[in-house]
Amino acid sequence: MESKRQQKISRLLQKDLGEIFRLMTHDHLRGYLITVTKVNVSPDMSIARVYLSLFGPGEKSVIFKTINKQKKEIRHQLAIRVKGQLRIIPDLDFIMDDSLDYIENIEKLLNT
Fold first, then answer.
1. In angstroms, rounded to a whole number, what is the distance separating the alpha carbons of residues 50 and 94?
2. Beta 33-41 vs 47-55: how paired, if at all?
3. What's the mean pLDDT in 73-87?
């Protein structure tokens, strides 16, 4: 069960990371849509598990590796955005959220 503070920080991080990824896809990853579906913050606020949903052409694992390589820059951009609201910026742990792919697969199976 997350505390109210964890929930507030999760929403803040989700909103700001969504904006960072929007700008990142506009500049570097054209044709891809990266959505931050959920953020879970650890009780000590040191780690944020960020669930990402990827849409676009090509291999998702390649884009996911690119995102992980840019983790330090993404964290820096996040720090700039939330510097007045958080003292410590949590480490980001990106997780690929494949729930939408799972739902799409189930719908495809039900329609055949």
1. 5
2. antiparallel
3. 93
Q: What is the pLDDT of residues 24-78, one digit of tens each?
A: 887 776 778 889 999 999 999 999 999 999 887 778 888 889 899 999 999 999 9
Query: What are the CA-CA distances from residue 20 to residues 4, 88, 96 (Å)?
Result: 24, 18, 17
Q: Where are the domains of the chain?
A: 4-111
Q: Tell the CATH topology of 4-111.
A: GMP Synthetase; Chain A, domain 3 (3.30.300)
Buried b (16+ CB within 10 A) or exposed e, 2-24: eeeebeebbebbbebbeebbeeb
